[in-house]
């Protein structure tokens, strides 16, 4: 399977704990995006990378959130001191430069108790 | 500020008939529009897209129409099949960021 993969698919954590999610993009794609989707809403943009450079961050990405893409391949999204409001589906997508279409992974569903 | 709106939360269509999903946007700077389909517990799957310089794009059973003056786009699915039952999201891009609508749940009735 050469699509976007995300790990884990589900995560349950207690409030105040740190969590980290991983995204592996389609191998030839140099752009990688993170989105968050809550119930009844469409996905909301969080941040994007071109190669290893983080080029844009949403206001939604508070200082408890950090994303990295150290070698321009896979990316991690870390949430520190989780809050119940962080419960959502976290989606990763990838694309190539000059290509408008973003291809999404299956998502990581986070539940903060 | 909801820049991309899908005003119909749900739609039911008989199998074999045409499904028409609608989307409105407010930002005239959007230059590319996409439709995604989403099943429960899965990520969105790309269906079809259209550049702002075009008014129609067709791919098999799926056709997207863009009316820039009305800031409106629609997705036509014909004929509708049971496997088309899913949530459909309209998305618009300006630069790298996609802005999504809230989705329309399409149910195809056998």
Question: Could you outline the blueprint of secondary structure elements for this entry?
Answer:
The complex is a heterodimer of chains A (about 110) and B (about 110).
Chain A: E1 5-7, E2 10-13, E3 19-24, E4 31-37, E5 44-50, E6 53-57, E7 65-68, E8 75-79, E9 88-95, E10 103-104, E11 108-112
Parallel strand pairs in A: 2-11
Antiparallel strand pairs in A: 1-3, 3-8, 4-5, 4-9, 5-6, 7-8, 9-10, 9-11
Chain B: E1 4-5, E2 10-14, E3 19-25, E4 32-38, E5 45-51, E6 56-59, E7 62-67, E8 72-77, E9 86-94, E10 97-100, E11 104-109
Parallel strand pairs in B: 2-11
Antiparallel strand pairs in B: 1-3, 3-8, 4-5, 4-9, 6-7, 7-8, 9-10, 9-11
Explain briefly what this protein structure is.
Chain A is mainly beta. Chain A is 0% helix and 50% strand. In chain A, the strands form two sheets. In chain A, strands 2, 4, 5, 6, 9, 10 and 11 form a seven-stranded mixed sheet that branches. Chain A has a four-stranded antiparallel sheet with strand order 1-3-8-7, with no helix packed on it.
Compressed to H and E, one letter per element, the order of chain A equals EEEEEEEEEEE
Helix content of chain A: under 10%
Multimeric state:
heterodimer
Parts with pLDDT < 50 across at least 5 consecutive residues of chain A: none
Distance between the termini of chain B: 38 Å
The dominant shape of chain B is: globular
Main sheet overview of chain A? 7 strands, mixed
Number of helices of chain B: 0
Overall pLDDT of chain A, averaged? 94
Radius of gyration of chain B: 13 Å
Q: How confident overall, as mean pLDDT of chain B?
A: 95
The interface involving the most residues is between: A-B, 26 and 24 residues
Counting helices, strands and paired strands, the structural category of chain B is: mainly beta
Distance between the termini of chain A: 33 Å
Percentage of residues in helical conformation of chain B: under 10%
Description:
The complex is a heterodimer of chains A (113) and B (110). With 113 residues, chain A is mostly beta strands. Chain A is 0% helix and 50% strand. Chain A is built from no helices and 11 strands. In chain A, the strands form 2 sheets. In chain A, strands 2, 4, 5, 6, 9, 10 and 11 form a 7-stranded mixed sheet that branches. In chain A, strand 9 (88-95) and strand 10 form a beta hairpin. Chain A is globular, with a radius of gyration of 13 Å. The N and C termini of chain A lie far apart (33 Å). Chain B has strands at 4-5, 10-14, 19-25, 32-38, 45-51, 56-59, 62-67, 72-77, 86-94, 97-100, 104-109. With 110 residues, chain B is mainly β. Chain B starts with a strand and ends with a strand. Chains A and B meet through strand 4, strand 5 and strand 10 of A and strand 4, strand 5, strand 9 and strand 10 of B.
């Amino acid at each position: 399977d050469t699509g976007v993969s995300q790990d884990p698919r589900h995560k349950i954590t207690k409030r105040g704990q740190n969590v980290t999610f991983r995204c592996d993009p389609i191998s030839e794609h140099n752009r990688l995006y993170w989105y968050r989707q809550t119930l009844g809403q469409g996905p909301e943009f969080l941040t994007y990378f071109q190669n290893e450079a983080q080029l844009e961050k949403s206001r939604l990405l508070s200082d408890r959130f950090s994303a990295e893409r150290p070698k321009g391949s896979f990316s991690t999204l870390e949430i520190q001191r989780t809050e119940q409001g962080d419960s959502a589906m976290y989606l990763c997508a990838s694309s190539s430069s000059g290509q408008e279409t973003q291809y999404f992974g299956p998502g990581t569903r986070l539940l903060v108790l | 500020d909801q820049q991309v709106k899908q005003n119909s939360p749900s739609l039911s269509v008989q199998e074999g008939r045409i499904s028409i999903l609608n989307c409105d946007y407010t930002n005239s700077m959007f230059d590319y529009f996409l439709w995604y389909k989403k099943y429960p517990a899965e990520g969105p799957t790309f269906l079809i897209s259209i550049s702002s310089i075009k008014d129609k794009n067709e791919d098999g059973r799926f056709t997207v129409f863009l009316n820039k003056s009305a800031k409106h786009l629609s997705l036509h699915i014909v004929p509708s099949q049971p496997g088309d039952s899913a949530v459909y999201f309209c998305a618009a891009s300006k630069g790298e960021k996609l802005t999504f609508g809230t989705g329309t749940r399409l149910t195809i009735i056998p």
